[in-house]
Amino acid sequence: MKDAEISILKDAGLTQGESRVYLALLETGVSSIGPILEKSGVTKSIIYRILEKLVSKGLVSYVIKEKTKYYEAQRPEKLLDYIDEKEAIIQETKSKIKEFLPNLISMMQHSEKSMATVYEGFKGIMTVHDKRFDKLKKGEEYFFFGLPEKQPEHFHAYWQRDHILRAKLGIKCRMLYNQKVDDVTLKNRNSFKGCDARRMPISVDTPAWILGYKDVTVIGITLAEKPLAFEIVNKEVANSFRGYFEWFWNKSKPFK
């Protein structure tokens, strides 16, 4: 009994034991349990279960002679029939899932879930920010607070493109920067439609910033050698950080 033959039968959907028993029956012909056990190498405790499964799959038949069951493998062409039946079932299941898919997606979107994901490097920071546009719709907003005084130059280039896209999609944003941020940066951010950028009402020196929208909270550190962002998807956590943001926002002053 060759491993290659067993492997092919397993690829067709048979188990290791089913493959060994089927191949053994092909070689022995009509047989009682004893020769099948010896030829296949499977244990007596599972041989009857395996044979029942092969019979149900149409690959083995049996007759009873003098109260003893004799088994026989069906012609190998039956394997193709078995595979065809499996493919038909898969196609039918696939069609049903396609039909039900919108309901499944809706269930996922409305279920209360919680998870945390870590993003590393500048590309990771871009990825976690770009995800805003997967959830937010026209007229909705996101907020930032604790934005640093200075950022690497390539970060500014990304923000320029980001705000252009945000404005085009009709999404709004409110931003609170470190008190030491220069007027040039604030003037630039406020030049984009739908953006209100201000300074924090209190002096807080921290490398971390917070992004929030919907049920998402992102805690980022961009001044480190390797920028990091921690994305938390949880409604309660998001509401908590929004509460902090609104407190700071109500005490801030519009940039002039």
Account of the protein in words:
The chain has 256 residues and is of the alpha+beta class. The chain has two domains: 3-79, Orthogonal Bundle (Arc Repressor Mutant, subunit A); 115-251, 2-Layer Sandwich (Endonuclease, Chain A), CATH 3.30.870. Helices cover 52% and strands 21% of the residues. The chain contains ten helices and nine strands. The strands form two sheets. A seven-stranded mixed β-sheet has the order 3-9-8-7-4-5-6, with helices on both faces. A two-stranded antiparallel sheet has the order 1-2. The protein is rod-shaped, with a radius of gyration of 32 Å.
Task: Kindly list the characteristics that best describe this protein.
2 domains, Endonuclease, Chain A, two-stranded antiparallel sheet, Arc Repressor Mutant, subunit A, alpha+beta
What are the SSEs and their pairings?
Blueprint: H1 3-11, H2 16-28, H3 33-40, H4 44-56, E1 60-65, E2 68-73, H5 77-110, E3 115-120, H6 121-130, H7 132-135, E4 141-147, H8 153-169, E5 172-177, H9 183-190, E6 195-199, E7 208-213, E8 216-221, E9 228-233, H10 235-251
Parallel strand pairs: 4-5, 5-6
Antiparallel strand pairs: 1-2, 3-9, 4-7, 7-8, 8-9
Helix pairs in contact: 1-2, 2-3, 2-4
